[in-house]
Amino acid sequence: MQPNLFTQTLTVSQFTFRVRKLLEENPELQDVWVEGEISNLSRPASGHIYFTLKDKNASLRCVMWKSDAARTRPTLQEGAAVEAHGKITVYEPQGQYQLTVNLIRPRGEGALFQEFLRLKSMLETEGLFNPDRKREIPAFPKTIGIVTSATGAALRDMLDTIRRRQPLARIILAPSPVQGVDAPSALVNAIQSLNLQSPDVILLARGGGSIEDLWAFNDERVVRAVAASQIPIICGVGHETDFTLCDFAADLRAPTPTAAAELATQTTLDDLHLQLSTFRSRLTDLISSLFADHRVLISTLAARLRFVSPDRRIQSDRQRLDEFSRRAYSAVAHRIQLQAARVDGISRRLSALNPEGVLSRGYAIITRKEDGKVVARVSDARGAMNVRVNDGEFEVKRDS
Amino acid sequence: MPKTKPAQKAVEELTYEEALAELEGIVEALEGEQNPLDEAMKLFERGQALIVRCGGLLETAQLKVQKLAGESLVDFAEEAE
Fold this sequence. Notes:
Order of helices and strands of chain A: HEEEHEEHEHEHEHEHEHHHHEEE
Largest interface: A-B, 34 and 34 residues
Structural class of chain A: alpha/beta
Number of helices of chain B: 2
Strand content of chain A: 15-25%
Radius of gyration of chain B: 18 Å
Number of strands of chain B: 2
Largest sheet of chain B: 2 strands, antiparallel
Low-confidence stretches of chain A: none
Number of domains of chain A: 3
Shape of chain A: rod-shaped
Structural class of chain B: alpha+beta
Low-confidence stretches of chain B: 1-6
Number of helices of chain A: 11
Mean pLDDT of chain A: 89
CATH topology of the largest domain in chain A: Rossmann fold
Oligomer: heterodimer
Distance between the termini of chain B: 49 Å
CATH architecture of the largest domain in chain A: 3-Layer(aba) Sandwich
Order of helices and strands of chain B: HHEE
Strand content of chain B: 5-15%
Strand order of the largest sheet of chain A: 1-2-3-5-4
Number of strands of chain A: 13
Helix content of chain B: 40-55%
Radius of gyration of chain A: 64 Å
């Protein structure tokens, strides 16, 4: 190739920058899994980790920053076969490209993960993970079953948590190895035997570990046993970032064993104390209001009793008697008055009719002596006649 | 609930759950029905005894841990660490 003499010459920095851009802007190089053996492992005090990944024909410089290194499980040793995930970067001062690693797993884990996905999708299709299969976790379980290793820190953490939050609970531990070839069948057995004890809830738990360590919880037999359990199961395996198939099959997933123990003790001792004091005040309120009710009732009854008492009737009868006598008296008085008025009127009319009254005013009554007939006309007058005046009578005689 | 009390257990023999359930029943009975006063007083006294029982159980509660060994249960000794 003939050099073009007129092209502008680049500085090393400019050139390296171009290479860097070329590599770092290629998305395919920014999210890769690379498999190889670890060599030249170096862990300086800075906390970052430097090593080379190599196979028969090539090698690749790798760096893992402190923050990512801290999350890495101790699989990093000389000669270990690993799969590293990261992005290609260029270290300009040395003109070196390198893999900046953020995740490392033992070689073969990729295959395990493929198996995990296959099993997950199969069991999912069967409906083992359906949300409507999930049962309610009792808030205040009397008996809590635990399936885990009898010697692990997970058990101690769970017992401490339950003891602190809900010491009224009874624990039944079904110990089982949680890793190794025997773990799956032992876990299945533990879940099944625990079911026979009818606890209110079962905690299936294990502390953190590598994906292989946790693999028993991805075993199809164990997952099926979890799904088939008559008792609700809370699964707390590994750390927050670990998901196992048992998590999906369980009624509730907890990020850690301690969290599982917390989820199994939703009603704490404090809650119970509070509940009890609520009952105490309700009971006291009830009884005092009952007493108040009865006091009201008694005073109402007393008032009603007074109302119907004979005393009251006697009093009222007496009153009625008074009333009658008053009315009788006034009726009689009225009639007497009326009669008196009538008598008065009659006597007045009578006195007007009395002939004597007329005589006193100077009139006279003349009667014939022979037959006593009153002389009212001239033709009546004959013979001797009696003349009656106011104070006596005398005789007269008609001459002609 | 208070009507069916011929087989009433002594308060000291009740578990926390039993005592609490009975207490709840008593409060509900007092709230709901019209009880004769002397019966209400008996319920109230029983309720108070239940509260004392529950409180005592809460104070002295100690987690009981058993281990499944075959088909039987044995006390589980946590290793002291």
